[in-house]
Each structure stands twice: as C-alpha cells, then as structure tokens.
Description:
globular, Uridine Diphospho-n-acetylenolpyruvylglucosamine Reductase, domain 3, binds flavin-adenine dinucleotide, 4-stranded mixed β-sheet, disordered C terminus
Amino acid sequence: MEKNYPLELLNTWKIGGIAEFVYWPQTIADMSNVWQRAQEAKIPVWLIGRGSNLLLPDEGLPGITVVTTSLGAIEWGDDYTVQVEAGYTLARLSQEAGERGWSGLEFARGIPGSVGGAVMMNAGAHGGEMAAQIISITALWADGTVKRLERAELEFAYRFCSLRGNAWVLEVQLAFSPGDREQILNRMKEYLRNRTLNQPLEKPNAGSVFQNPLGDSAGRLIEAAGWKGKRIGGAQVSEKHANFIVNTDNAKAKDVLALIEAISRDVQSKFGIRLQTEVACFNEARGTKHEARIEGKQSSQNT
Ligand SMILES: Cc1cc2nc3c(=O)[nH]c(=O)nc-3n(C[C@H](O)[C@H](O)[C@H](O)COP(=O)(O)OP(=O)(O)OC[C@H]3O[C@@H](n4cnc5c(N)ncnc54)[C@H](O)[C@@H]3O)c2cc1C
C-alpha cells in the first residue's frame, strides 16, 4: 500500500491529484480482503484497471484506490478457452491468443485496457466486442460474496455491462475459435496500423471520449461542429481524431470536463443530439458537477 500517490501515474491521460492510499492486490483473495476491510472501516474504495478509459479528479481520491494490474494469472485450456484474471493486459492476451492461432480477440490488439476494465466497458472495435467471447465471469459483490456468472446471466450492450456499478470483475473465462495463425496476426497488424494512422497515440489520451450515437459517429459530429484542434487549458480536441481529447500541456481534469461540457452543449444545439461520455469519471468525491454520465462511483455504495 502506498500513501499519497499521484493518480497521474495510474491513467493514460496522465491527469489527477493525489490518492490517499493506493493498493495493488496480488491475488483475488487480496481483492476480497481490501473490500471487506474498507467496508468495515467505512473508507471509500475505488477500482482502477489500466486507467485507459478514466478521468481522475484534480482534487485526488480519498480512501483506497485499488489497482488491478498485478492480478495477472492466466490458464490456457486445451479447448480454445482461457481463464484470466482481471488485471491481465487485453492487448497482450489478444497477441498471445493470435500466436496460438486462436481467433476472437483480434479486435482488441490495440485496446490498452485490462481484461476486467474491458469486460465492464464491453470494449469493442472493428466489429468485435468482449461480450461475444465471454463464457463466464467471477465477480465480487458489494455484500462481499464472490459469484461466478455464466454469459446468459449477464446483459451487454454497446459499451455496457450489467455488472457495472454492482461488482468487481475478478476473473473471466473467454472462448476462441480455431483460426489461421498468419491471418490472425496480419489482421491484428492491420488494425494497429489503422490506429497509428487515425488516432493521436503520441499524446496522452483516453481513447474515444464520447459514445457513438446510434447510426452516427461522435467524431464526425464534433468535427462538423468545428471543435477539431480547439483547446481549454492543457486539453485539446485532437487534430487527428475529433473524438479524442489529448493532454498537450499538463491538462487538468477540469480542462477536460470543460471541453466535454462545451462540446456536448454545442453538438446538442447544432444537431439536436445529446452525446454520452464513454470515459468513466471519478469525480463525485469532491462534488464536481458536470453533465457527462458518471461512472466508477464511490464503492462504499456501489462496487
Ligand atoms: C489509445 C486508446 C485506444 C482505445 N481504443 C478503444 C477501442 O477501440 N474500443 C474500446 O472499447 N475502448 C478503447 N479504449 C478505451 C479503453 O482502453 C477500454 O475501455 C478498456 O477496456 C478500459 O480498461 P481499463 O483497464 O483501462 O479500465 P479503467 O480505465 O481502469 O476503468 C474503466 C472503468 O472500468 C472499471 N473497472 C476497471 N477494472 C474493473 C474490474 N476489474 N471490475 C470492475 N470494474 C472495473 C473502473 O472502475 C472504471 O469505471 C481506448 C483507449 C485508449 C487510450
């Protein structure tokens, strides 16, 4: 456990104040224990994976910030299934599956999250999404119980999983299908090449800021509203992809939130479409208000 740890080291936007405590559980039992102890002591507890879809507050986080990145056990089955802990890197899992000639996670090769974060966000790209590969999920619930749920017991939609706000994902069982190794690896290379061309990967960012509205693209709407390249403080709408906000110069969370609000208002007034954020915002602790959907709530109420 570290005290007074900079949150900017825990997310790809490189934004955030100081976390009171940060804890990296090594095992699933550690996850349950920290949850129980925080409940008993009535301390707020927050959960972060690889922080690639997350806006953390300038004011920092009180209580314990739990980071899953050390939860990395993996067991490859001989039946095209894998059992993997929540902190395992999704892109690495995708690459390793491809090298075995296992098809299914090619879409995830360029997504820099953890397996647990990817399940919670139902991460997807290139026509694929996590939901399609899931056999079962083992999760920790707010009452401290650990339960395994089969795919049929879970609901998924575009960037939505019914566990969100209710449980911590501990481990996941995923299914693949047999494929041609070279073809799989080539497909992944192509996806990565597209990302390098179209996404501002050279600057700190958190992927797509807004969800795509049905039948349209958030990037197209933001660009059409004239926001490409605009900035507030150290945060800038990427010149390369209008649905990315990049940290160009020590951006603060308040800069990003101000851009999010301004863009949302403008797109609503110009096109009548209300954009929903895709990034999760841990900003309730100190009462920061903004219009975007708030995720990752203080876990003394919601895990
Ligand atoms: C360059 C770039 C490209 C990206 N491209 C894509 C893309 O193509 N498609 C896409 O869908 N996303 C994309 N993303 C966003 C992001 O990588 C995914 O949403 C990823 O799945 C988030 O995982 P994470 O571990 O980083 O989650 P975090 O950002 O750490 O957390 C996100 C939310 O999930 C919760 N969470 C994390 N782990 C767990 C867990 N074990 N149990 C319960 N809740 C948990 C957190 O509390 C938080 O609310 C991109 C991001 C970047 C920076």
